[in-house]
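Tokens in:
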């Protein structure tokens, strides 16, 4: 083993001065600074060769080279040190390659025993003095320095028998840090740590030595909910993990005598100042990231598509950033054009598997965590470019809006974007009038088939990223909302019929018929009574009626950018119309089940997130009053709906309340972790 270092620029007079004055600390400091300054522009030449009696580092110990055998070295090391009871040290020998060891000193050493037995208590002080010297000069403070130079500066010599003791002391010294990169290359070079780094190491060492008493003191502070912040924050990581459902138990809470539930952990984090009341744990609890998918889809692939004349209309809320559907009526056919990410997302690709795990785009007041990468919107959303690529459903309807035929095409479409409000203002226009008439007929058809229409309040919740101020506004509905909804239902019904007709394994959505009581009250109470009677929807590969919608076949196909079930439906349809391989029933069932499970979890995370921010809103507006309406009676209590918040609350001792009775309510108490709120009646 050897290293080559070239050096010019250090004069003989410099060297003479050094040796004449080495005993002087002042001269030593002067020479050190001068020598390292020269090295900034100078080259060194030295030859270091690993030979017999060289000293090397082998794994975590020191060894002496006995001889060289070809490309390998025979080394001797101590495998077991002598014991205080009188047992002698045990030595071993091993053949190693050059890359398995690091040269510590070229030697020669007198013996391995002398190397291991050497001890000098002055070395730590010498290292400290050298550190101060190096630190005192801007140039030397930032440069790396070899172990041999450090030894010369600290001790006046680089002695083979002393090298292991010096290296061991240097390894324990907080002032110097070994360069990992140089070590990998067989070199021992060190850099100076900053005072901040040194303080951090010393603090960690102190904490390690006094771990038990530090822990006891922390637990005492935690019991009293009076932490020493920010220092105590690092001990609360386990509590945070438990509150986020990342662990199933919390030792810290048990030690402090707190019962272990995620809600208790949440409250404890608030009480101790670790979390603010605005902290939303629910996406993480259900395994969702606050960030969108990262893997890019790439540009839309080039393939043959049908050009659709005229314009289609992408109608959505003013806050929408991912338009994935557009509608048009050409006088004969209803066209429902849907974004086409399935053109790039192939079954079982990495993007497909990741989307399956998410199930859907997670919409929470903080923003959207998208199922597919944000960047895909530019290429795949509708209406963001002059011409959009789509998977289009051409639907033939009879005079009662009953589907006669549905065909599926890959298309290019001219799309205009409108808000619901803009569409409402233009509903008598030549472009939109027919769509509104068609939607009215379809709604009447479905209601005649038993479709259930339930009107409940909805709100839009937004959170300012900086201030965390919450805004809750009513979600205003127009007839244009219903028009688009009816077109989407027709697309889902048409796609399901197409899949059933062509025997394509498909994600069908169904719902059993509800059983309503003979008498249903009016108003909000009536809507709530209907909700209680509705059956859960089911997703599978066997078609069945969707009673809630009043259709015989149904599938969701209109949101492949944000729903996995829609994406796999598109994958099947594209494969079929291209004459390619469609997934079998078992494969589809597995994907449908996984995507639906993730989607259900996302809905729970979204619902709980909405409630969380509503409670924060109440705390931010403590004096605000709200109108509440009695929607159900439960023993001595009554359930009230607050339309302005889209929130329900139980009022104790209101057994005499009449259904739909209106009262004025004001927030009394809010429990963020348990998502409870108590209201007071201001007037009735």
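Residues out:
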């Amino acid at each position: 083993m050897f290293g080559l270092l070239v050096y010019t620029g250090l004069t003989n007079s410099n060297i003479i001065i050094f040796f004449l004055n080495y005993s002087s600390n002042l001269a030593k400091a002067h020479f050190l600074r001068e020598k390292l300054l020269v090295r900034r522009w100078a080259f060194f030449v030295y030859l270091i060769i690993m030979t017999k009696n060289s000293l090397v580092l082998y794994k975590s110990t020191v060894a002496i080279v006995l001889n060289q055998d070809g490309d390998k070295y025979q080394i001797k090391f101590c495998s077991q040190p002598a014991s205080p009871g009188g047992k002698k040290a045990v030595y071993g020998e091993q053949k190693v390659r050059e890359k398995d060891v690091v040269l510590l000193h070229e030697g020669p050493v007198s013996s391995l025993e002398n190397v291991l037995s050497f001890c000098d208590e002055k070395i730590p002080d010498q290292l400290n003095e050298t550190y101060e010297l190096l630190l005192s000069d801007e140039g030397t403070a930032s440069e790396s320095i070899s172990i041999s130079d450090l030894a010369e500066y600290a001790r006046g010599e680089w002695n083979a028998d002393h090298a292991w003791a010096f290296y061991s002391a240097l390894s324990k010294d907080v002032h110097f840090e070994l360069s990992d990169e140089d070590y990998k290359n067989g070199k021992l070079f060190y850099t100076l740590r900053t005072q901040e780094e040194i303080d951090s190491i010393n603090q960690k060492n102190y904490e390690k030595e006094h771990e038990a008493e530090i822990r006891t003191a922390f637990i005492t502070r935690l019991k009293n909910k009076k932490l020493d912040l920010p220092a105590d924050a690092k001990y609360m990581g386990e509590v945070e993990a438990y509150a986020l459902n990342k662990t199933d138990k919390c030792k810290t809470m048990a030690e402090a005598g707190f019962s272990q539930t995620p809600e208790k952990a949440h409250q404890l984090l608030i009480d101790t100042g670790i979390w603010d009341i605005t902290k939303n744990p629910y996406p993480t609890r259900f395994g969702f990231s606050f960030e969108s998918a990262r893997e890019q889809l790439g540009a839309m692939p080039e393939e043959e598509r049908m050009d659709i004349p005229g314009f289609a209309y992408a109608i959505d809320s003013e806050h929408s950033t991912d338009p994935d559907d557009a509608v048009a009526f050409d006088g004969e056919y209803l066209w429902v054009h849907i974004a086409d990410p399935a053109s790039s997302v192939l079954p079982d690709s990495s993007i497909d598997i990741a989307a399956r795990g998410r199930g859907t785009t997670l919409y929470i007041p903080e923003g959207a965590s998208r199922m597919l990468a944000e960047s895909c919107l530019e290429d795949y959303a509708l209406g963001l470019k002059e011409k959009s690529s789509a998977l289009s459903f051409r639907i033939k309807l009879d005079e009662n809006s009953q589907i006669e035929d549905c065909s599926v095409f890959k298309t290019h479409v001219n799309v205009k974007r409108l808000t619901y409000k803009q569409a409402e203002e233009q509903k008598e226009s030549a472009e939109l009038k027919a769509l509104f008439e068609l939607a009215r007929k379809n709604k009447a058809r479905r209601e005649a088939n038993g479709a259930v229409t339930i009107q409940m309040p909805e709100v839009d919740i937004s959170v300012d990223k900086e201030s965390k101020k919450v805004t809750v506004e009513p979600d205003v509905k127009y007839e244009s909302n219903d028009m688009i909804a009816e077109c989407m239902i027709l697309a889902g019904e048409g796609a399901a019929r197409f899949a059933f007709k062509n025997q394509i394994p498909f994600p069908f959505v169904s719902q059993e018929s509800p059983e309503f009581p003979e008498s249903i009250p009016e108003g909000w109470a009536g809507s709530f009574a209907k909700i209680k009677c509705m059956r859960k929807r089911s997703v599978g590969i066997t078609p069945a009626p969707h009673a809630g919608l009043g259709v015989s076949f149904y599938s969701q196909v209109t949101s492949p950018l944000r729903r996995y079930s829609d994406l796999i439906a598109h994958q099947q349809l594209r494969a079929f119309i291209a004459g390619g391989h469609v997934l079998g029933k078992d494969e589809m069932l597995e994907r449908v089940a996984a995507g639906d499970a993730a989607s259900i979890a996302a809905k729970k995370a979204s619902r709980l997130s909405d409630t969380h921010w509503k409670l924060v809103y109440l705390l931010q507006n403590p004096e605000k009053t709200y109108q509440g309406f009695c929607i159900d009676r439960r023993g001595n209590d009554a359930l009230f709906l607050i339309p302005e918040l889209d929130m329900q609350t139980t009022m104790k001792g209101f057994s005499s309340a009449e259904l739909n009775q209106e009262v004025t309510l004001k927030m009394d108490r809010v429990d963020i972790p348990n998502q409870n709120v108590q209201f007071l009646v201001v007037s009735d």
